[in-house]
Amino acid sequence: xxxxxxxxxxxxxxxxxxxxxxxxxxxxxxxxxxxxxxxxxxxxxxxxxxxxxxxxxxxxxxxxxxxxxxxxxxxxxxxxxxxxxxxxxxx
Length: 91
Hints:
- By secondary structure, this protein is mainly alpha-helical.
- The protein has one domain.
- It is built from four helices and two strands.
- A two-stranded antiparallel ribbon has the order 1-2.
- Strand 1 (7-11) and strand 2 (14-18) form a beta hairpin.
- It is flat and about 55 Å long.
- The protein starts with 6 loop residues before the first strand and ends with a helix.
- Residues 1-5 have low confidence and may be disordered.
């Protein structure tokens, strides 16, 4: 690294500032975390090969179905909420 106070890692829209005394491995970890969160790698992998429009729709439908079922399982029903409220009042 040069004599600047901070250096930069830039990839697409991801930028990480590296402090002068910061461990480079830690900065690389932060950079990789930001790249993963931004979805750059997923997009590169998806664009590696041509995907038919019907396959795209099928994949998106499956993903949304999975996310919806996951969110429903984490929500409590009204009956479950009432029973927990009654248990709290009885104590």
